[in-house]
Amino acid sequence: MSINGWLQIAVTLALVLAVVLPLGRFMAALFTGQRTFLHPILSPVEHGFYRAAGIDPAREQGWAAYAMAMLVFSGAGFASLYAILRLQGVLPFNPAELPGVAPDLAFNTAVSFLTNTNWQAYSGEITMSPFAQMAGLAVHNFLSAATGIALAMAVTRAFARSGEMGLGNFWVDLTRCTLYVLLPLSIVLALAFVALGVPQTLTGSLDATTLEGARQVIPLGPLASQEAIKQLGTNGGGYFNANSAHPFENPSALSNMLAIWAMLAISAALPITFGRMVGSERQGWALLSAMAIVMLGGVALVYWAETSGNPLLTALGVDPALGNMEGKEVRFGQAMSALFVAVTTGLSCGAVDVMHDSLTPLGGLVPLLLIQLGEVLPGGVGSGLYGMVVFCVLAVFVAGLMVGRTPEFLGKKIEAREIRLAVLAVLILPLVILGFTSVAAMLPAALASLNNQGPHGLSELLYAYSSAAGNNGSAFAGLNANTPWFNTTLGIAMMLGRFAYVLPVLAMAGSLAAKTRVAESSGTFPTTSLLFVGLLVGVILILGGLQFFPALALGPIVEHVLMHASATF
Amino acid sequence: MLNSPALFDRAILWAAARDAVWKLDPRSLMRNPVIFVTEVGAALTTFLWLRAPDAFSGQIAAWLWFTVLFATFAEAVAEGRGKAQAASLRQARSDVQAKLLLHPDTQDGLYARVNAQTLEAGNVVLVETGDVIPLDGEIIQGVASINEAAITGESAPVIREAGGDRSAVTGGTTVLSDTIRVRITAAAGSTFIDRMIALVEGAERQKTPNELALSVLLSGMTLIFLIAVVTLWGLAGYSGTAVSVVVLVALLVTLIPTTIGGLLSAIGIAGMDRLIRFNVIATSGRAVEAAGDVDTLLLDKTGTITFGNRMATEFLPLIGVSASDLASASLLASMGDETPEGRSIVALAKADFGLREPTLIGAVLVPFAAQTRLSGLDIDGRQVRKGAVDSVLRFAGVTAPPEFRQAVDRVARTGGTPLAVADGTRLLGVIHLKDVIKPAIRERFAALRAMGIRTVMVTGDNPVTAAAIASEAGVDDFIAEATPEDKLAYIRREQVGGRLIAMCGDGTNDAPALAQADVGVAMQTGTQAAREAGNMVDLDSSPTKLIEIVEIGKQLLMTRGSLTTFSIANDVAKYFAILPALFVVTYPQMQVLNVMGLGSPQSAILSAVIFNALIIVALIPLALRGVPYRLVGAAALLRRNLLVYGLGGLVLPFIGIKVIDLVVTTLHLA
Lengths: 569, 670
What we know:
heterodimer; A: two-stranded antiparallel sheet; two-stranded antiparallel ribbon; 20 helices; 4 strands; 64% helix; 2% strand; B: alpha+beta; 7-stranded mixed sheet; 23 helices; 17% strand; elongated
């Protein structure tokens, strides 16, 4: 670790911090129906959509109606994306004349982009036509992100309102988020990426003659625009298989920094939006602090583990000064690679600029754990916020009793119904991740996909299911996931990770919105103090992480121990 | 006070040990998922041990059974204390003969002797000196002194009379003098004593809302760890580690929150029991929890904030009159006033001016009377009078000089009552009477405010008086010239603002407000209507009880929260004990995770299981006594409890398991 490295990390995070307040406040204004500086231009467009779709923007939806709208929308999105992928061969903009995608892969990919996971069991450049990339995948990069944010706003309103049934209108939230937040930011960001050298073209590929005189086909495409929403919407699905390690997707240290900034911007601003909407910006900062503390811990651990290098390689005469550089890009360096690893998994983004499979065992433990902790640090756009709210409810419930009152969060009493729903939600991750991993670990058909044996092989399996269930989408790699078994089970894991999680959360929001807001007093459990932040971190680590400890012990932890005992496998 | 056994009475402990075994019945344990899972695990390991007996799994099985037993024992101890109280209450209910009036509408007094259990609501019975009142009822004729020791434990008799707010009588109490006619209001089986028995016995015990929510969380955590342990089977299989079922069960039981799961119902029962020891009967556990949440206390001024009698605090002489002359005249004039106010004037004159009571030979006492509103003394040709200002002015036959008016106004403005003193036609000055605030009540209110609880004084006084007393006592708000409707309206207004209200009351006209309040404490001396409307009854009829009730409610919730935090924090150490032990055979390098340096894999697992069982027993006293409550704000409380139970819960098991492991290793148990 070096001061220079930490400075790079600090500068990147400072740039994120600079945008958190204005963006957070902007979104709070937007989702509470106030006019923003974009309204003069976009308001006619917005209302045009409502008129065309026959939506009454003033109509409030209860939690069930909101959930139903979200499910119908997602169902339709799944059907259309599945159709595009299967029919890609006969659809336009297919210069490489790629065939339709196989059923299991099409299912997996459709679910993946629908759920904001962007798990890719394929190589984009040789599987997807530009049409499928743009009309299929990129559309969902916007819509799945907007859906996540809309859901988070519905959950936020549960605390902002008192004694009401309505949580907002899904169609309105979805439209506003796409139109006022994602589109403008993407356009600006895409232009910035173009300026930094990211290609943006409809040309499918470039024929080049290399220095050796060999002919090479270099795939191209509308990269800058894809890249922008990939990062902003915490999607992570790359145009190329190498994702953000590819020099076209991420050409320089500067574009890398911008990519990290773009990943964090909205997710880090949403807690402020939450705080403002519930009438306590301090609350937003408290949530953001808890997220930041765990994520920074992750950054530090990766950075330390990677710069410490691999003793086995050092013994073979490799200079340990640079640390473990296997699978890393020299143009990014250790510090910014470590930051990218922790951010992309602390968020449910899943873009990668480092081969996670090549990280040291402890360096690989961090992304795995950050995903398993529930993707709340700060999590995917929207999903991170509502996941954090669930942890807040649990933290307040466990520790809130210690001040001698029925626990309440932001004036809403947390009672049996809320706890039942919150528990239902947090059950999903261990059930899906550990359940599928355990079955796969005993299934010869699944084990045949592994490149590595021993603890590292287990990490690869565990990572795949964690990434899917956490809707992260990054791959540890080292695992051939494009098999019917993995395409199907990972698809199911993604679906459960998104919908089976958010439905109880929405129901909880419905129940909370209907409650009268209790007046605050000095007897109220303080939820904006540093103490609460610490408590929240503890609850996330203990309630969210302890159940994965045995699995992690058998994977990365034992691998680390073995590495230092010079054992290979 | 109710006959309450010591915290750990030997007889109760023996009975509880017996009950603990009975409670192992899986049908009753189903209500407690955490302990139920433990029992299933215990049964499974026992079965495996029987199939292939070895010392290790035998010990694990035994300690798992102990874990379940300790949990049922905790509940049985808590219940046992209630049972002992119920037994003493039952004696009061033993078969009573009642004198059922045959013609209640006439005064002929003809009655038939019937068994009390056959009476119905609406029957009118005659109760004479020495009789036991058969069932709950209302006096419709007569006045009597009654011994209510059977329910309140207080042997001093109380007066009950027809009409007004002291007409309710309770079945099982004894009439000491006089004869009354009582209309029965509650049929046998639903009387106050019956309800009390049911409550203290815990027969009707339902999980309270918060307890229910907590059990849901604990069940969820049990399920999560069940997933973690079951899936470990596959993961360990992949790694080439054969993990025995016994060890997996041991891991599961140590991870699930058995500590709080085992103590949860004991905490709830003990909370009710604590209330009963304060002589308060809550009609539901829900009310006790609500008491912890109360934001606003509606307190009656009289008896709670002030002593209830106005007392002389100052003499204000007119110009040309010395203070000691005024005091001396006041003393003389008050000799004929036996009211508390009169006595307080005598006391003040003696205390402040060292005066002594005069010899009254040859003096004529003019006693205080409600009609004249003054008292006095005729002695040595003087006619000294003190009393209400207008009465004294009329007696003296003078118009008040401006200076006198000012003194009167000054007293009235500060909320006091002015009394005038005259010697014949000469006005001497004014006595300042005021409500005296109870000592230390101001500090109490300040402490309540720090806890976030507002206090509101309810009084029949005029706004000026009320404001003066309110500011002196340090309450946050007051309702002056309060009518029952005012109270009800105030409660509703606070509730709309999202606050929980507690109040106490005794009169029939208090009933709507008592019912509306979230915590309504009715006085045992109050009317039947009030007792029905509230959700608690204070057997001591003490209005200050409200504050203690709130503290007990808070203590109940705090105890739950603290032990839950403790239980969850314990898991970290247990992982460090068991996980290396599980995998060290396959991966010897895992030994580095054995941070406690436990003797062997088997001793590590056994020690964790033993610690898990013993910690339940160790915490039973805390569960029954409750975590001590301090009058500080929520932030300070949280900091303290998080430190003690959170950090303590993290650290203690590391030490505990290590110590147990040393013993286990020394004794070669594993």
